Amino acid sequence: MSGSIALFVLWIAMMGEVSVANSLSGVVVVAFVNWLFVHDHSRYVLRPLGAVRLTLSVLKSLVTSSWQVVLAVLLPNAQRTATSVQNVQLKHGSAFIGAIVANAITLTPGTMSLELHAEDLTLSVHVLGEVDEVQFRADILALEDMVANAVRERKS
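and the corresponding structure tokens:
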């Protein structure tokens, strides 16, 4: 129960002001997080420090990728408007973690997760703009590591 209150207070602090809308959305978020991570038969546990790091990283990606898309729209050139599909083999062996990675990628402008192959956990991502394949793979695996640090499998 105290974790739910702390999460609600954190939500209100992140929103910047106490309002009916922020309070209601905070209740929904806390209920969702409790449903997803807190009940007894959950396989995964949220790690708060890792979750904060993941959130900050995704927010940084949102800003940088939004800027890249703005440049591609306002000042198009072959490099900015090139598209490709990149395939990355995830290494943590969890479809749950892979799904969170795929959703975080799709959240950022200019990228869209196309498919996560359940058999071998290969993630296919459509990318706007020319990318260095090695760097892109390293960035996705770093994101996967952050997700794995934010949610860990419960030891039975």
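(Above: one complete record from the training split.) The chain has six helices and five strands.
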